[in-house]
Amino acid sequence: MNNILTPKACKIIDIKKESNLEYTFRVETDIKVKHGQFLQLSIPKIGEAPISVSGFGDGYLDFTIRSVGKVTDKIFTLKSGDTLFLRGAYGKGWPVEKFKDKNLIIVAGGTGVAPVRSMINMFYNDETYAKSVNLILGFKDENSVLFKSELELWKEKFNTIYTLDKGERDGFENGLVTKHLSKLPLNSFKDNYEVIIVGPPMMMKFTALDFIKLGVPEEKIYVSFERKMSCAIGKCGHCRIDETYVCLEGPVFNYTKAKSLLD
Protein backbone atom coordinates (compact mmCIF):
# COMPACT_ATOMS: atom_id res chain seq x y z
CA MET A 1 0.00 0.00 0.00
CA ASN A 2 1.33 3.44 -0.96
CA ASN A 3 1.73 5.97 1.83
CA ILE A 4 0.21 9.24 0.64
CA LEU A 5 2.78 11.16 2.71
CA THR A 6 5.83 9.44 1.20
CA PRO A 7 7.69 11.66 -1.30
CA LYS A 8 9.01 10.26 -4.57
CA ALA A 9 12.59 10.95 -5.64
CA CYS A 10 12.45 12.57 -9.09
CA LYS A 11 15.15 13.85 -11.41
CA ILE A 12 15.29 17.46 -12.56
CA ILE A 13 15.59 17.32 -16.35
CA ASP A 14 15.57 21.04 -17.19
CA ILE A 15 15.75 24.44 -15.49
CA LYS A 16 14.63 27.61 -17.25
CA LYS A 17 15.22 31.11 -15.91
CA GLU A 18 11.99 33.09 -16.19
CA SER A 19 13.13 36.19 -14.26
CA ASN A 20 15.69 37.09 -11.62
CA LEU A 21 13.50 35.54 -8.92
CA GLU A 22 11.54 32.84 -10.77
CA TYR A 23 12.72 29.67 -12.45
CA THR A 24 10.76 26.83 -14.04
CA PHE A 25 11.95 23.37 -13.01
CA ARG A 26 10.97 20.45 -15.24
CA VAL A 27 10.94 17.22 -13.24
CA GLU A 28 10.81 13.68 -14.59
CA THR A 29 7.89 11.81 -13.04
CA ASP A 30 4.88 9.62 -13.81
CA ILE A 31 2.68 11.46 -11.27
CA LYS A 32 -0.65 12.36 -12.88
CA VAL A 33 -2.14 15.80 -12.27
CA LYS A 34 -5.09 17.97 -13.24
CA HIS A 35 -4.88 21.63 -14.22
CA GLY A 36 -4.64 23.76 -11.07
CA GLN A 37 -3.48 21.10 -8.63
CA PHE A 38 -0.35 21.39 -6.48
CA LEU A 39 2.37 19.12 -5.13
CA GLN A 40 4.60 19.24 -2.09
CA LEU A 41 8.23 19.67 -3.14
CA SER A 42 10.88 18.78 -0.60
CA ILE A 43 14.58 18.44 0.09
CA PRO A 44 15.65 16.11 2.94
CA LYS A 45 16.73 17.91 6.13
CA ILE A 46 15.55 21.26 4.67
CA GLY A 47 11.77 21.04 4.41
CA GLU A 48 8.97 21.11 1.88
CA ALA A 49 6.78 23.67 0.15
CA PRO A 50 3.48 23.56 -1.76
CA ILE A 51 3.99 24.50 -5.42
CA SER A 52 1.35 24.66 -8.14
CA VAL A 53 1.94 22.73 -11.33
CA SER A 54 2.60 25.18 -14.17
CA GLY A 55 2.80 22.57 -16.91
CA PHE A 56 2.75 18.85 -17.55
CA GLY A 57 3.16 16.30 -20.29
CA ASP A 58 4.17 12.72 -20.92
CA GLY A 59 6.62 11.88 -18.13
CA TYR A 60 7.19 15.33 -16.67
CA LEU A 61 5.81 18.14 -14.51
CA ASP A 62 6.77 21.83 -14.57
CA PHE A 63 6.98 23.97 -11.43
CA THR A 64 7.52 27.71 -11.71
CA ILE A 65 9.07 28.68 -8.41
CA ARG A 66 9.87 32.01 -6.80
CA SER A 67 12.83 32.07 -4.43
CA VAL A 68 11.21 33.37 -1.22
CA GLY A 69 12.26 31.11 1.64
CA LYS A 70 14.44 28.33 3.02
CA VAL A 71 13.07 25.52 0.86
CA THR A 72 12.77 27.45 -2.40
CA ASP A 73 16.20 29.04 -1.89
CA LYS A 74 17.69 25.56 -1.59
CA ILE A 75 15.81 24.31 -4.66
CA PHE A 76 17.42 27.16 -6.60
CA THR A 77 20.86 25.68 -5.88
CA LEU A 78 19.96 22.42 -7.67
CA LYS A 79 21.03 21.58 -11.21
CA SER A 80 19.70 19.41 -14.02
CA GLY A 81 20.26 15.80 -13.01
CA ASP A 82 19.80 16.53 -9.30
CA THR A 83 16.99 14.97 -7.28
CA LEU A 84 13.89 16.73 -6.03
CA PHE A 85 11.31 14.95 -3.88
CA LEU A 86 7.61 15.18 -4.80
CA ARG A 87 4.40 14.05 -3.17
CA GLY A 88 0.92 14.58 -4.48
CA ALA A 89 -0.88 15.68 -6.55
CA TYR A 90 -3.24 17.39 -4.12
CA GLY A 91 -6.28 19.60 -4.05
CA LYS A 92 -9.06 20.48 -6.43
CA GLY A 93 -8.03 22.02 -9.73
CA TRP A 94 -9.87 24.13 -12.27
CA PRO A 95 -13.35 22.84 -13.25
CA VAL A 96 -12.23 22.56 -16.88
CA GLU A 97 -15.37 20.69 -17.87
CA LYS A 98 -17.44 23.79 -16.98
CA PHE A 99 -15.34 25.90 -19.34
CA LYS A 100 -16.27 23.92 -22.46
CA ASP A 101 -17.74 26.22 -25.16
CA LYS A 102 -17.59 29.23 -22.82
CA ASN A 103 -16.03 32.67 -23.25
CA LEU A 104 -13.24 32.55 -20.69
CA ILE A 105 -11.72 35.53 -18.94
CA ILE A 106 -8.44 34.83 -17.17
CA VAL A 107 -6.90 37.56 -15.02
CA ALA A 108 -3.60 36.71 -13.34
CA GLY A 109 -0.79 38.63 -11.70
CA GLY A 110 2.90 37.75 -11.44
CA THR A 111 3.52 34.18 -10.33
CA GLY A 112 -0.26 33.79 -10.37
CA VAL A 113 0.13 33.10 -14.08
CA ALA A 114 1.79 29.76 -13.20
CA PRO A 115 -1.36 27.97 -11.91
CA VAL A 116 -3.24 28.82 -15.13
CA ARG A 117 -0.39 28.28 -17.60
CA SER A 118 -1.08 24.60 -18.31
CA MET A 119 -4.78 25.28 -18.83
CA ILE A 120 -4.11 28.23 -21.14
CA ASN A 121 -1.82 25.99 -23.18
CA MET A 122 -4.56 23.37 -23.33
CA PHE A 123 -6.90 25.99 -24.84
CA TYR A 124 -4.12 27.04 -27.21
CA ASN A 125 -3.62 23.48 -28.44
CA ASP A 126 -7.35 22.76 -28.70
CA GLU A 127 -8.90 25.84 -30.29
CA THR A 128 -12.37 24.26 -30.27
CA TYR A 129 -12.58 23.77 -26.49
CA ALA A 130 -13.46 27.32 -25.45
CA LYS A 131 -15.55 29.75 -27.47
CA SER A 132 -13.01 32.50 -26.73
CA VAL A 133 -10.13 33.08 -24.34
CA ASN A 134 -9.48 36.57 -22.97
CA LEU A 135 -6.30 37.15 -20.98
CA ILE A 136 -5.35 40.05 -18.73
CA LEU A 137 -1.93 39.22 -17.30
CA GLY A 138 -0.09 41.71 -15.08
CA PHE A 139 3.50 41.91 -13.90
CA LYS A 140 5.32 44.24 -11.52
CA ASP A 141 7.81 45.52 -14.11
CA GLU A 142 9.62 44.40 -17.26
CA ASN A 143 12.08 42.32 -15.22
CA SER A 144 9.22 40.34 -13.68
CA VAL A 145 7.58 39.11 -16.90
CA LEU A 146 7.16 35.31 -16.97
CA PHE A 147 6.72 32.87 -19.86
CA LYS A 148 7.81 35.43 -22.46
CA SER A 149 7.77 33.07 -25.45
CA GLU A 150 4.34 31.75 -24.51
CA LEU A 151 2.93 35.24 -24.06
CA GLU A 152 3.81 35.86 -27.70
CA LEU A 153 2.17 32.60 -28.80
CA TRP A 154 -0.99 33.31 -26.82
CA LYS A 155 -1.36 36.62 -28.67
CA GLU A 156 -1.86 34.67 -31.88
CA LYS A 157 -5.10 32.98 -30.79
CA PHE A 158 -6.44 34.85 -27.76
CA ASN A 159 -7.59 38.35 -26.90
CA THR A 160 -4.71 39.52 -24.71
CA ILE A 161 -3.89 42.49 -22.52
CA TYR A 162 -0.48 42.37 -20.85
CA THR A 163 0.27 45.01 -18.23
CA LEU A 164 3.12 46.36 -16.10
CA ASP A 165 2.46 47.97 -12.74
CA LYS A 166 5.35 50.31 -13.45
CA GLY A 167 7.73 50.97 -16.30
CA GLU A 168 7.29 50.39 -20.00
CA ARG A 169 7.79 47.51 -22.42
CA ASP A 170 6.72 46.99 -26.01
CA GLY A 171 3.40 45.16 -26.18
CA PHE A 172 2.44 46.00 -22.59
CA GLU A 173 -0.10 48.42 -21.15
CA ASN A 174 0.46 50.33 -17.90
CA GLY A 175 -1.29 49.98 -14.57
CA LEU A 176 -2.86 47.33 -12.40
CA VAL A 177 -4.95 44.60 -14.03
CA THR A 178 -8.13 46.11 -12.57
CA LYS A 179 -7.57 49.20 -14.72
CA HIS A 180 -8.23 47.14 -17.85
CA LEU A 181 -11.29 45.05 -16.89
CA SER A 182 -13.67 47.50 -18.57
CA LYS A 183 -12.01 46.74 -21.91
CA LEU A 184 -13.44 43.21 -21.90
CA PRO A 185 -16.46 42.70 -24.20
CA LEU A 186 -18.64 41.33 -21.39
CA ASN A 187 -21.92 42.37 -23.02
CA SER A 188 -21.14 40.37 -26.15
CA PHE A 189 -20.69 37.22 -24.06
CA LYS A 190 -24.34 37.32 -22.90
CA ASP A 191 -24.47 34.78 -20.06
CA ASN A 192 -21.99 32.39 -21.67
CA TYR A 193 -18.76 33.13 -19.82
CA GLU A 194 -16.66 32.31 -16.76
CA VAL A 195 -14.00 34.36 -14.93
CA ILE A 196 -10.74 33.04 -13.47
CA ILE A 197 -8.58 35.16 -11.15
CA VAL A 198 -5.18 34.24 -9.71
CA GLY A 199 -2.68 36.39 -7.84
CA PRO A 200 -1.94 37.79 -4.38
CA PRO A 201 -4.99 37.72 -2.06
CA MET A 202 -5.58 41.48 -2.21
CA MET A 203 -5.35 41.46 -6.00
CA MET A 204 -7.90 38.64 -6.24
CA LYS A 205 -10.23 40.31 -3.75
CA PHE A 206 -10.37 43.67 -5.50
CA THR A 207 -10.40 42.19 -9.01
CA ALA A 208 -13.40 40.05 -8.04
CA LEU A 209 -15.16 43.06 -6.50
CA ASP A 210 -14.56 45.10 -9.66
CA PHE A 211 -15.99 42.31 -11.80
CA ILE A 212 -19.07 42.23 -9.58
CA LYS A 213 -19.45 45.99 -10.10
CA LEU A 214 -19.40 45.27 -13.84
CA GLY A 215 -22.35 42.94 -13.34
CA VAL A 216 -20.55 39.58 -13.17
CA PRO A 217 -22.40 37.13 -10.85
CA GLU A 218 -20.31 35.73 -8.00
CA GLU A 219 -20.93 32.16 -9.12
CA LYS A 220 -19.15 32.86 -12.42
CA ILE A 221 -15.87 33.77 -10.69
CA TYR A 222 -13.15 31.28 -9.69
CA VAL A 223 -9.93 31.93 -7.77
CA SER A 224 -6.94 29.88 -6.67
CA PHE A 225 -4.78 30.41 -3.60
CA GLU A 226 -2.42 28.51 -1.34
CA ARG A 227 -2.70 29.49 2.31
CA LYS A 228 -0.15 28.18 4.82
CA MET A 229 -0.35 24.64 3.51
CA SER A 230 1.78 22.06 5.26
CA CYS A 231 0.56 18.46 5.29
CA ALA A 232 -1.68 18.84 2.19
CA ILE A 233 -4.09 16.17 3.46
CA GLY A 234 -6.16 18.10 5.99
CA LYS A 235 -4.50 16.78 9.15
CA CYS A 236 -2.23 19.56 10.44
CA GLY A 237 -4.76 22.39 10.33
CA HIS A 238 -2.28 25.06 9.20
CA CYS A 239 -4.40 26.02 6.18
CA ARG A 240 -7.73 25.83 7.99
CA ILE A 241 -9.97 28.91 7.76
CA ASP A 242 -12.97 28.41 10.04
CA GLU A 243 -14.17 24.96 8.90
CA THR A 244 -12.47 25.03 5.48
CA TYR A 245 -9.23 23.19 4.77
CA VAL A 246 -7.70 24.97 1.79
CA CYS A 247 -5.50 22.00 0.87
CA LEU A 248 -8.54 19.73 0.54
CA GLU A 249 -11.29 21.99 -0.76
CA GLY A 250 -8.95 24.21 -2.79
CA PRO A 251 -6.69 25.59 -4.03
CA VAL A 252 -9.41 26.43 -6.59
CA PHE A 253 -12.60 27.91 -5.16
CA ASN A 254 -15.71 29.42 -6.60
CA TYR A 255 -15.97 33.00 -5.38
CA THR A 256 -19.22 32.28 -3.55
CA LYS A 257 -17.01 30.30 -1.14
CA ALA A 258 -13.75 32.19 -1.58
CA LYS A 259 -15.17 35.58 -0.56
CA SER A 260 -15.26 34.42 3.05
CA LEU A 261 -11.72 33.01 2.88
CA LEU A 262 -9.74 35.80 1.23
CA ASP A 263 -8.03 38.17 3.66
From TrEMBL:
<dbReference type="InterPro" id="IPR001433">
    <property type="entry name" value="OxRdtase_FAD/NAD-bd"/>
</dbReference>
<dbReference type="InterPro" id="IPR014260">
    <property type="entry name" value="Sulphite_reductase_B"/>
</dbReference>
<dbReference type="Pfam" id="PF00175">
    <property type="entry name" value="NAD_binding_1"/>
</dbReference>
<dbReference type="InterPro" id="IPR017938">
    <property type="entry name" value="Riboflavin_synthase-like_b-brl"/>
</dbReference>
<dbReference type="InterPro" id="IPR039261">
    <property type="entry name" value="FNR_nucleotide-bd"/>
</dbReference>
<dbReference type="InterPro" id="IPR012165">
    <property type="entry name" value="Cyt_c3_hydrogenase_gsu"/>
</dbReference>
<dbReference type="InterPro" id="IPR019480">
    <property type="entry name" value="Dihydroorotate_DH_Fe-S-bd"/>
</dbReference>
<dbReference type="InterPro" id="IPR017927">
    <property type="entry name" value="FAD-bd_FR_type"/>
</dbReference>
<dbReference type="InterPro" id="IPR050353">
    <property type="entry name" value="PyrK_electron_transfer"/>
</dbReference>
<dbReference type="Pfam" id="PF10418">
    <property type="entry name" value="DHODB_Fe-S_bind"/>
</dbReference>
<protein>
    <submittedName>
        <fullName>Anaerobic sulfite reductase subunit AsrB</fullName>
    </submittedName>
</protein>
<feature type="domain" description="FAD-binding FR-type">
    <location>
        <begin position="5"/>
        <end position="96"/>
    </location>
</feature>
